[in-house]
Amino acid sequence: MTTNTRQPQSAWALLADIVGGAASVIKGHVVTLRNWLRPKVTGQYPYRDPAKEWVPKPGYRGDFALIHDPERPGGLRCIACMACANVCPDKCIHIIGQGKGKERHPAAFDIDIGLCMYCWLCVEVCPVRAITLTPEYHNVAFTPQELIRDINDLKARGEGIAEPLLPVPIERSVLQPPTAKKKDVSEA
Ligand code: SF4
Ligand code: SF4
Predict the structure, then answer these.
(1) Where are the domains of the chain?
(2) Which CATH architecture has domain 56-170?
């Protein structure tokens, strides 16, 4: 047989419990109300107000681009050396090279940004600074297939980009700005 050891609650203790409970409910509602009235810091995506387009911070690593060189076959600086494809830890770069020597260029250049972890190694390893990450952040899609960038996408995004964009300040980067050509001594 068990005995009930629970003591009946005094009226004062009961009242204190009720007041304490009510105070915490009011406190919770005050927090909710305060946040509800605060200006919004989030926006709906992708149905945003174009006037409030987000501007990425310097160094943001977004979608890829290939840098142009109108004097080379294919109009790209890339020499299809495969260094970026080989270094990529996620194996998301696939290139088909064409031509030999100075004529070598990519016939196909695909990057699967769905696999990419934006480590920047491909940009760092490129011997001719032909590939870059850009601040383009609209890299969302409904199917994995839509996340594959081909040579035409990469070339189009490279329009107007003269040099790879650096994700860190120039003094901390392994990429250096192009050095001015040495003046011919005979000109002096
Ligand atoms: S940023 Fe990194 S993961 Fe993405 S393609 Fe380049 S090397 Fe591969
Ligand atoms: S982007 Fe650079 S590293 Fe990649 S294949 Fe072209 S030249 Fe080589």
Answers:
(1) 12-41, 56-170
(2) 2-Layer Sandwich (3.30)
* Two structure tokens written together for 63: 């979608």
What is the pLDDT at residue 180? 52
**How far does residue 80's CA lie from ligand 1's centre (Å)?**
16
In tens, the pLDDT along 81-107 reads 999 999 999 999 999 999 999 999 999
Pocket of ligand 1 (CB under 6 A): 87-90, 92-93, 111, 116-122
**Closest atom of ligand 1 relative to the 131 alpha carbon:** 6
Alpha helix (H) ranges present in 38-166? 83-87, 121-125, 151-157
What token pair was written down for 101? 């020597």
pTM score of the predicted model: 0.72
What span, in angstroms and rounded, lies between the C-alpha atoms of 93 and 108? 10
Residue found under tokens 């009226």: 11
Token digits of residue 150 = 């081909």
* Contacts (Cβ under 8 Å, ≥6 apart) of 53: none
Predicted pLDDT at 186: 43
Alpha-helical regions (H) of 6-65 = 11-37
DSSP state of 4: -
